[in-house]
Specification:
Layout: H1 3-36, H2 47-56, H3 62-70, H4 73-83, H5 95-102, H6 104-120, H7 132-150, H8 156-163, H9 166-174, H10 176-184, H11 191-196, H12 201-211, H13 216-223, H14 243-259, H15 273-278, H16 280-286, H17 294-313
Helix pairs in contact: 2-3, 2-6, 3-5, 4-5, 6-8, 7-8, 7-14, 7-17, 8-13, 9-12, 12-13, 13-14, 14-16
Bound molecules: fe (ii) ion (2 copies).
Residues 164-165, 254 line the site of one fe (ii) ion.
């Protein structure tokens, strides 16, 4: 065997070993980053934390909600602004009127979004991710809205929508050079991330859900949001309360985000709305016998998501 042959035989093995070393180092760095993350849920004694607790309690009332919101000037201002915005068409003059006009579920969404934004907004968005906040709020609203057509919903669906792509924020902040490689890769997400880092943005987001003790249904749906039907076992249609169902809804809503041009450039599906409706995941949902009116839903939800986003980011 000549020198050239030897080199070509050695090079792939050396490349694989270097990649494995790199992957191990990336994984260790990720573990450190995740360990240093505070809980995604706000501290129990903060006003946001008290609101979160209230949302978990079946006995809580709008009045309880108002009492806590009144203690938080930033939240009070947001609730007023939203209730009286063009999208929500309210004429509230008191915080009680504003909360009543919006309703419990909307106030919960605003509180969850505010908590999410507070936690992650100091992370700088890289070029191409300017729409990230709007996209996530939109996807979260759509996810809760579709799930609400099928089942009682309790806020976890909205949180799943908010959190499912958080991995991109952490990659942008802590692995910028690798994110550039992912963005330039010919492979789709999350295969590109697996190749470069050995873990995907979906796995990072699921780790955040798991360390925050969110229900396994949310964690499983988030980790599989790019291939939720892979969770199906034995072809038996799962219940509306399952991780598969939530994962499929997340997947469809994510693709609607793309169809509405709120793309993350390196993970876009390239589908328009008709393409979304024809996707395997959207077709899978039709077996449950409900008609999802996609166009009307988008028309209703997008302006509200924009309004919430403006209220959180100060219109930036
Ligand atoms: Fe994703
Ligand atoms: Fe997404």
């Amino acid at each position: 065997m000549g020198d050239t042959d030897q080199n070509t035989a050695v090079a792939p093995a050396a490349g694989a070993a270097a990649a494995a070393t790199g992957h191990a180092a990336f994984r260790m760095r990720l573990v450190e980053i995740l360990k240093s993350q505070e809980d995604i849920l706000p501290p129990a004694q903060s006003s946001l934390g008290r609101l979160y607790q209230l949302f978990q309690s079946p006995e809580s009332s709008v009045e309880d909600c108002v009492e806590i919101i009144k203690l938080d000037p930033a939240m009070t201002a947001r609730i007023f602004r939203l209730a009286n915005s063009v999208a929500y068409r309210g004429k509230a003059t008191t915080i009680s009127e504003a909360v009543l006009h919006l309703g419990f579920a909307q106030v919960r969404q605003i509180a969850f979004s505010a908590g999410f934004f507070k936690k992650f907004s100091e992370l700088k968005l890289p070029p191409g991710m300017e729409q990230f906040w709007l996209r996530n709020i939109f996807v979260a609203r759509l996810t809760e809205r579709i799930c609400a057509q099928f089942q009682l919903f309790g806020g976890m669906e909205y949180l799943a929508g908010l959190l499912h792509d958080t991995g991109w924020l952490l990659l942008a902040a802590h692995f910028p050079a690798e994110l550039e490689l992912i963005a330039a890769s010919d492979k789709p997400s999350p295969a590109s991330e697996k190749e470069i880092l050995s873990f995907s943005h979906a796995e990072i987001a699921a780790a955040i859900c798991a360390t925050s003790l969110l229900p396994p249904r949310v964690t499983n749906a988030v980790v599989n949001h790019h291939a939720p039907l892979a969770l199906l076992v034995g072809g038996i249609p799962p219940s509306h309360n399952s991780d598969v169902f939530l994962g499929v809804v997340l997947n469809v809503c994510d693709k609607i985000g793309d169809a509405c041009k709120l793309e993350i450039p390196w993970q876009k599906s390239g589908l328009d709305l008709e393409g979304v409706k024809e996707s395997a995941e959207a077709k899978w949902l039709t077996q449950f016998g409900k008609v999802i009116k996609y166009e009307a839903m988008i028309e209703d939800e997008l302006p509200k998501a924009q309004e919430i986003c403006r209220a959180l980011t100060g219109g930036k």
